[in-house]
Design goal:
The complex is a heterotetramer.
Chain B: H1 6-14, E1 32-38, H2 42-55, E2 60-63, E3 79-80, H3 87-100, H4 103-107, E4 118-122, H5 125-141, E5 146-148, H6 150-156, E6 172-176, E7 180-181, H7 184-197, E8 201-203, E9 208-213, E10 219-224, E11 227-236, H8 242-248, E12 256-265, E13 275-278, E14 283-287, E15 293-299, H9 311-324, E16 332-343, E17 350-353, E18 359-363, H10 373-386, H11 400-403, H12 409-412
Parallel strand pairs in B: 1-2, 1-11, 2-8, 4-13, 11-18
Antiparallel strand pairs in B: 3-7, 4-6, 5-6, 9-10, 10-11, 12-15, 12-16, 13-14, 14-15, 17-18
Helix pairs in contact in B: 2-7, 2-10, 3-10
Chain C: E1 3-6, E2 11-14, E3 19-23, H1 37-44, E4 53-59, E5 67-73, E6 79-84, H2 92-103
Chain D: E1 18-23, E2 26-31, H1 36-42, E3 49-50, E4 57-58, E5 71-75, E6 81-86, E7 96-99, H2 114-118, H3 126-129, H4 135-148, E8 164-176, H5 180-191, E9 196-199, E10 216-217, E11 220-221, H6 222-234, E12 239-242, E13 245-251, E14 255-261, E15 276-288, E16 292-295, E17 307-309, H7 310-318, E18 327-332, H8 336-346, E19 350-356, H9 365-372, E20 376-378, E21 380-387, E22 391-398, E23 405-408, E24 411-415, E25 417-420, H10 423-427, E26 431-435, E27 440-445, E28 450-452, H11 462-479, E29 492-493, E30 518-520, E31 525-526, H12 527-535, H13 541-548, H14 561-572, H15 576-579, E32 591-592, H16 593-597, H17 614-619, E33 623-627, E34 630-635, H18 643-656, E35 659-662, E36 667-672, H19 676-683, E37 696-702, E38 708-718, E39 721-726, H20 731-745, E40 752-755, E41 760-766, H21 770-774, E42 778-779, E43 792-798, E44 801-807, E45 815-821, H22 825-836, E46 842-844, H23 846-855, E47 904-911, E48 923-924, E49 938-946, E50 951-959, E51 968-972, E52 977-983
Parallel strand pairs in D: 1-7, 8-9, 8-15, 9-12, 15-28, 17-24, 18-19, 18-24, 19-20, 35-46
Antiparallel strand pairs in D: 1-2, 3-4, 5-6, 5-7, 10-11, 10-29, 13-14, 14-15, 16-25, 21-22, 22-23, 26-27, 30-31, 33-34, 35-41, 36-39, 36-40, 37-38, 38-39, 41-45, 42-43, 43-44, 44-45, 47-50, 47-52, 48-49, 49-50, 51-52
Helix pairs in contact in D: 5-6, 5-11, 7-8, 8-9, 12-13, 12-14, 18-23
The chains are: A alpha+beta, B alpha/beta, C alpha+beta, D alpha+beta.
Amino acid sequence: MAKSEAVQPHYPLEGRLGGSAFVSVSPGEPASRLALRARPEALASLSKALGVKLPEKPKTSTRATAVKAKGRRAAWIGPDEWLVIDENGADLLAACDGVDGVFSAVDVSNRNTAIIVSGAGAEATISAGCPQNLSMDVFPVGACSRTLLGKTEIILLREAEDVFRVEVWRSFSAYAFAFLADSGRSPMM
Amino acid sequence: MRRYSIFAVARETMRGHKGWPKQWTSPEPKKQYDVIIIGAGGHGLGTAFYLAKEHGITNIAVVEKGWLGGGNTGRNTTIIRSNYLYDESAGLYNHAMKMWDGLSQDLNYNVMYSARGVMMLAHNVHDVQGAKRHIHANRLNGVQNEWLTPEQAKEYCPPLNISQTARYPVMGAALQRCGGNARHDAVAWGYARAATDRGVDIIQNCAVTGIKRSANGAVEGVETTRGFIGAKKVGVVAAGHSSVLMEMAGVNMPLESYPLQALVSEPVKPIFPCVVMSNTVHAYISQSDKGELVIGAGTDQYTSYSQAGGLHILTHTLDAICEMFPIFSRMKMLRSWGGTVDVTPDRSPILAKTPVPGLYVNCGWGTGGFKATPGSAHVFAHTIANDAPHAINAPFNLDRFRTGRLIDEAAAAAVAH
Amino acid sequence: MLLIHCPYCDEERPELEFRHAGEAHIERPTDIKSISDEEFMKFFFLRDNPKGVAYERWRHMHGCGRFFNAVRDTVSDKFVMTYEAGKPRPDGDELRAKSKETNQ
Amino acid sequence: MSGANRIAGAGRLTPAKTVRFTFDGEIYTALEGDTLASALVANGVHLMGRSFKYHRARGVLGAGAEEPNALMGIERDRARRQPNVRATVQEVFEGMKATSQNRWPSLAFDIGAVNNLMSPFFAAGFYYKTFMWPKAAWQKLYEPIIRGAAGLGVSPDEADTDHYASRYVHCDVLVIGGGVCGLSAALAAAKSGASVVICDEQAQMGGALAYENGVTLYDEAGFDWAGKTAAELAGMDNVRVLTRTTAFGYYVQNFVALSERVTDHLAEPDADLPRERLWQVRAKRVIIATGAIERHMVFANNDRPGIMLSSAARTFLNHYGVAVGTKVGVYTANDSAYETAFDLKRVGVSVEAIVDCRDNPGEGKLSTAADLGITVKTGHSVTNTKGARRITAMVVERNGGGGAKTIAVDALIMSAGWTPSVHMFSQSRGKVAWDADTQRFLPGDYAQDCVSIGACNGTEDLQASVDEAIAAGEFAAKAVGGKRAANLKIAASGGGGWSGGVAGSADGAGPDTTVKAFVDFQNDVTAKDIRLAVREGMHSIEHVKRFTTNGMASDQGKTSNIHGLAIAADALSREMPAVGLTTFRPPYTPVTFGSIVNHGRGQLFDPTRKTPMHGWAEEHGAVFEDVSQWKRAWYFPRIGEDMHAAVNRECKTVREAAGVFDASTLGKIEVVGPDAAAFLDLMYTNGWGKLKPGRCKYGIMLREDGFIYDDGVVARIAEDRFHVTTTTGGAPRVLHHMEDYLQTEFPHLDVWLTSTSEQWAVIAVQGPKAREIIEPLVEDIDLSNEAMPHMSALEGKICGVPTRLFRVSFTGEAGYEVNVPADFGRAVWEAIWERAEPLGACAYGTETMHVLRAEKGFIIVGQDTDGTVTPQDAGLSWAIAKSKPDYVGIRGLMRPDLVADDRKQLVGLKTKDANTVLEEGAQVVADPNQPIPMKMLGHVTSSYWSENCGRSIAMALVAGGRAKMGETLYVPMPDRTIEVEVTGTVFFDEKGERVNG
């Protein structure tokens, strides 16, 4: 094999599909992801470098408005922690290079994988295993939180009233997918 | 004491069971006793019984804030075994094991000790190593314990799922055949009756509110909701509440109290012949002589004296039960309840003298004190009577937390690589 | 299952997201190497374990990840308040004010 | 025809809608909507079960959850067999198979009934007093007999094929109970804008309205109003209406568990429907509207089939259209039973007599009875009954005796009064209070944000109850911020009260000690058993309960608790509360394990973690082992190889050529920040300041007590960036441990921790040909010994993807650990394998990894250490930076016992016979001939056959082991004693030259 020719990736949930008439459970597209930790002083410059404003309000997320950062969003995970997701696979780590301030940027693109849960039964399907209140008034569109699904930790992001993105660690993804497929068989809405 | 026997029962049957005497009385507390035991559970009542029986001390009060046997004695899942790893633990629990066999006769009270066998499952290589380490150490300590293959385990306990497709397949089991169960209430009642017979006062509905010490620091007695009761020796045997009582004497303890839950199913015809425990899958189960499956759950994560825990703890226990015994998923939980257990840093009990002269403590049994009841009571009585520990409980002192000489059975089962 | 107010998320969240982390306000001695065996025992092993108001640590393990402190009654399991790690132990007045608030 | 006792025009079922079912093999016809109990009674079947202890013939007592007698097995197929189903709750469906329990050979003729004759001997607690001699007989004879008699139904013996579901739900107001109060409260709360969940255990909302046919609401028949109101609620966006749903557990902070029975009433349920669904509700406010449960009368032989609660008979008639008999007797201590008698009489059933132990029944009862032509005997009692498998007569006497008269009846309905259902209130940790006026326990002090309304709160009058319910609903909505006003007013009329009656034994229950006046039907507890318990010194109700088993059957004492308490109180001449009250604990009614476990069965019991290369290993025949939640390739047997042969081959191959190993499960933590090295200095015993970027080092982590917690290689990627590895099982707890110290003890440090365990797939390539294998695949990294010596970690590319390439060795061979982004793990592995295989390398698993590291004396934390081992014990003193002022564990290590001489130390053991492989866990002694208990020196921690050494090797923790080098010790086995020599822990390449390649 020639050295420059990169091998092909294998994604964790390739080919899976689950759900019912009420809900669809499917693997998300590959994306790049950054686990970002920072002191408050670094937020402005990091936001600028990443092209997306790092949210400071708990349980919220923001989307990039700049054209160059389209498909990028930043989710508040903790008071000094964010998850930045770029659906176009941009090199987020490089984007932080040379930014002033004290912070930690770690590439976790392959650590997580996404499951998209959509349809009228989406909230009910996730509520089978997630103990948080996911009603629209408490967990509106754009809300994002690290939480649990059954016996695994997830990051839950509401993309629309009926669409959730479930970010889960790679080796837990088969479990999370199977859980959602099971609870999606007959969600009581 | 009217002896219990089949003849006595037959005689009483003829006269409508009207001649049975009280099993224990409800005396008013005297002003002064030789020894006060705080806590009328199995360990406390047993301590009073052995003080009277073996040490000739009969001027004893057992004070209890509620009803006798109503604490952890009446709330546990009654598992008896002695296959502990370390010499110290093996010595203590096997002392108790020897006493279980014969306790009914000793007390003239059928405690229904049932040597159904306790089987501890191994689900991975690390479990196997741990189980074998126990078995070898037990053998050389004179403690029963043997290794079973999955097939032998299944034969011993037919409902067990030994399928290799299980999430954590059974790789074998350690079986202690003399392990099993006893009837918890009968243990408390049997000791209460036998102690009463020897002159011990059991004073129920009498909460201790203070421990009085003299100018030189020694114990003088206890303040209670029924007045002051004097004694030069006080033994604290108040599982769950040991910290609270010891605090009354100014002693800070290496203890934390957690809620521990258990449950039983509806009664069904005999289906489960032994006791099965799994540390990896996290559950233990047996079937009572009434036909209920008796299932122990884990502790809640937070300290509490509420005697109640969360449903999620039961969920985790029952999913483990259904994993090991898929036939039980249609069984129904009939009752669940909670107790408060006090836990030491090394998960081993404290059975010792304390820095306060005349104050003795028996605590820290965590989730497994029932099995030790007769042995614990026996050596604790010795400790109080002689103001010095028995060789068996000498290692279970308070000083070990200073020196680091812990008896850490839990650490020995450390999570693997 | 308890409902716990995370002072960082500023929201009540189910207990499953949290992990209890023992008694609060036990500081690791700065010069730990030179303390006595007794002092080490007190620091590492001895606990108040009160029946009643307890000061304890929690971590919002499956949430924001932060450790924080709580005041809880270990008989009723009711929380009086939670507060960020590093903040001083609340005094009696503060607790009384808080429990009034939560009882309304 | 759906049963001879069906009354035309009565009830709410549709006569044309029939279904067929079997009971003990007999085919019966029922109507859709029938319960098994109503269907059987309709068909004249009253004998439905046998009691637990005496095997007495029993019929149905109630018509709901309180039922103690009519328990049956319901079977769809072998795997879906449900024991102990209450016939009063189970709805019939086409083809249902029901069987009776606790009888042999048949329900009608049960050998076990001989116990009934022996019953004087089997008094409460008799087994504590006997079966002790001869001692050996207990286990061999008595116990098996006692146990053999235990239990009611039969457990399933095949794995359940149904599935179960779960749902967390959050609401403003949860209303428990869908009777008139629950519905009114729910409507008020919902109309005030609150989000509401209302549940009821019945198939339809309505509660007592199902039988209370005199009630009107808004001038509408009560049950019709309930149906319309339930529909109205169901139509509102902010309301969820759950029927067949029992609130069974009330936990702290208004967390209430409900179990919904989704398919048990369906003949052919959709396969996607769960059998049951667990609802875990977090409510801001809870409204408890659970009503009251009728008590039976306690008198001699009050348990024959055909004797039942008056409310049950009324339910059977008014809801199911079934008459419970043709000649009905009534025995009562309150007014409720009159209404049942009147209803029966009005549809043409003969009521033989109403026997009222009171002298003065409630207003109007006597005149209505007279109008209907019913004889009422006030100041009288039923003192006995007759009949075998069904009641044939009742014996009526004047109170205090005299004038005994036997009246033929085929059913006897009774009411001793009503017990408010304070179960949920009590579960919420509320304290019940004794109401001396009405002789009831009622809700007292509340512990949570909830309120009881209606009958369970002791509220009498219907309009008052409805008003109370509306107020509670409005208040709850307002308390959670509801702004709207419901403006609800419901005019209610009719209905009886809930107070009055007797608790405890009635005339005819003794004091004769041979009389069987049942208090707890299922457990066969009689009034005399309770008196006996008191005589024996049981003065607390908890003692009485445990001694007699009163209230401990599967009906949980719903009808018996108060009677038991009253009888004990009477025997003690005390007020009931002075004897105590049982605290109610979950569940309210029994709940299946399946419902509680729901999704967590089978593959969802626990996550199964697999590495990116798992599929490759599977395809290449790997056998896997469970390590925490991971599946790890254990060994790769070739055709004909057993584990031993495969591992020997793998071990040889790695040292002779090379091996490829999946190390992806190792925990990884990225430690980033200017203070990263300072932080690691505190977390590890080692010093990190001097480690240069591009180099790595083995680190040991202690707990504060000085014992080894974890270990692993730590690489410095950049000045402010470390790549920490942990053990597989230790990954989560190590991160938690580090976060704890970082956040709470060392918050001043500028450093962050990020788990990267799953970001990287790790491919270990070990052995003399390791470099040759990977070299052509690597870009941007000079692999020469000079540029990349042992213990290096460099970044570059492999197979075109980024890598962190570690030159490390857990085998003692020269080798690499190739870290690549997990998505590329399998492809890079395949590329490496493509090169490795032709060079004679093999894939190897964890067992070979274990053997190879043991040959080198490398420890595995958790195997060679166990939480009681210090670095010194493990021979790792070299890894402690002596000059550091602080690290976690520094003080713990100094404690007296941790520096004692006789500590167990890790040493090597060589068996005298090189072919003997020691068993891991075997104990080591100095003198094998000493008596038991033996003085044990320690145990074998690791032991293998080493193909490379041509002999067995082992490590052991041995007391004072390092001073015993060369000494002979013994490992006693059950069948022989094995002689061993104490050695160092390195068995292969002692000088450690091979790592340098």
